[in-house]
Design brief:
Helix content: 40-55%
Number of helices: 10
Structural class: alpha+beta
Oligomer: single chain
Order of helices and strands: HHEEHHEEHHEEHHHH
Strand order of the largest sheet: 1-2-4-3
Distance between the termini: 59 Å
């Protein structure tokens, strides 16, 4: 077994910069499917051999021509990871958007391993936990060896110049993934578009589960957090592509999914009331990207 020490920090929260064409995805999916599995005992031994000396919190390795990742315990999760949620909470006076703080270390590892295994058991595509210990875990690569996996957010941004016909199908994939997660009785951790990745077969997977909103918040509020995170991270691309008009109708239809009940809709109405002041924000690039994101978010979510 040969370990490669090339590392990518935060590879699962924002790992990838290169969009992948649909044709390439089809070819790559066949290659990924042909990889031979390694026995669980090999994975356990591999984790035990490399975890104690791994210098980075997350690092890529190669085993039997497959890419694997080891994530280990680290210090307190940095504040920037929660910045967007904190800013949104203040700007729209929405307490449900307060970050679910995870203190890092073994707690974060245990939470992520548990959530990944639970979601796998529910049929949600996430990184597969191959081996775990108190101090770290080994997971599979969601693409094929030798290629990074693009985030949905990066892919949507890349096709903005192509207009609504290119942006909307990708955006709807994210909505469908949230539906799948909510429909199986679960929620995401931070449903920003950067935390969805496009696998070689063109399907989405979810990443980054260091916190667990369901442990401290009711299910309808967790579902609302997912909706708000996704809207905030994608509305600006819909606006830039001239797709907001069509997206608003899609969004309203999406909200009535059976998995989202009366409590979700009551909480959403309260949030929209707090957000009304956003309609006064000018859609002006000179005021900065954050202002544009908030205005686009309101334009997407505003009541019909």
């Amino acid at each position: 077994m040969q370990a490669h020490t090339h590392t990518r920090r935060h590879c699962l929260t924002n790992p990838f910069e290169s969009p992948v064409s649909p044709a390439a995805r089809g070819a790559d999916a066949a290659t990924a499917a042909s990889a031979e599995p390694t026995s669980p005992s090999d994975y356990d031994a591999f984790l035990a051999a490399h975890l104690p000396t791994q210098p980075k919190n997350i690092q890529r390795y190669e085993l039997d021509h497959n890419w694997l990742w080891i994530k280990r315990t680290g210090p307190l999760i940095p504040a920037w990871r929660y910045r967007i949620l904190s800013v949104l909470r203040v700007l729209i006076n929405e307490p449900v958007l307060g970050p679910v703080i995870n203190h890092g270390g073994r707690e974060a590892i245990a939470t992520e391993v548990r959530r990944l295994r639970e979601l796998t058991a529910r049929g949600i595509r996430v990184p597969r936990v191959l081996a775990s210990s108190d101090d770290g875990f080994l997971m599979n690569h969601l693409g094929i060896p030798g290629q990074d996996v693009p985030s949905l957010g990066n892919q949507i941004r890349a096709v903005v110049p192509e207009g609504p016909g290119a942006v909307l199908p990708l955006w709807q994939q994210g909505l469908a993934m949230i539906d799948q997660v909510h429909g199986c009785g679960s929620v995401l951790s931070q449903a920003f578009a950067r935390n969805f990745v496009i696998c070689p077969d063109g399907e989405l997977a979810c990443v980054d589960f260091e916190d667990d909103p369901q442990a401290v918040l009711p299910m309808p509020i967790c579902q609302l957090r997912d909706a708000l995170c996704y809207a905030h991270s994608t509305a600006i691309y819909l606006s830039s592509a001239g797709a907001l008009h069509e997206a608003r109708a899609i969004w309203q239809d999406w909200l009535i999914h059976p998995a989202r009940g009366p409590e979700f809709h009551a909480a959403l109405r309260n949030t929209l009331r707090r957000m009304r002041w956003l309609r006064h924000l000018p859609n002006n690039r000179k005021l900065g990207r954050d202002t544009q994101r908030l205005r686009a978010m309101w334009d997407l979510m505003r009541p019909a």
